[in-house]
Amino acid sequence: MDDPIGSTYNERCAGVYDELFGAFDAAAVDVLAELAGGGSALELGIGTGLIALPLAARGIEVHGIDASPAMVARLRAKPGGGSLPVTMGDFAEVGVAGEFALVFVVFNTLFALQTQGDQVRCFRNAAAHLAADGVFVVEAYVPDAAFGGGPLRVTAVESDRVGLKVSRHDPVAQRIASQHVVIRDGEVRLYPVEIRYAWPAELDLMAELAGLRLRHRWSDWNRTEFSAASTKHVSVYARA
What we know:
The chain is an alpha/beta fold. Helix content is 22%, strand content 33%. The chain folds into two domains: 11-143 and 198-239, 3-Layer(aba) Sandwich (Rossmann fold), CATH 3.40.50; 152-194, N-terminal domain of TfIIb.
């Protein structure tokens, strides 16, 4: 894992981020809008605005933070993207002024922080920017023994494109370095992703260190009950 900034929010991925990673559950916008309760929201790792833009269209004042100029340029090019306030920088720092009714990080983006310490710092800074009755929402996958299907996985087979995901797993450091390989018209493109994953119980401890506690945990944005069979979770934290 030689590239410390290799992540989903890598500059190289900006042009194809929506295509490779852009599927999302529309119910997410409904849930986040409800949790914001008419107050302002802050998205950590706002990226191309896949969630922020439809949330803003619901009347929520959305702010964002992101480290990638190329990703934010994609956001700015979309309808409504030019009006969203975005702070450039490490989203673990949450370097924005004011308090928010909702702080959220989705699409496993929390795992783009490469160390446990950075993830703890993110929880603490998110908590510091919550209004008294605000909530911090994390959407992430649940790690499994097969670590996402093994070191090589086919992600797409289409008439003009083949997608592969090649991964290297370090279970001690809880890190995965991957290359999303896209083969199209004889051209091969590589898109690096590096993550440091964490189990839900570990995130709950991070929340406790930040003065937060778990209020809800669902298997999806439809608020399906979380269980041992769940492959991802939507966790809602509030002040303890």
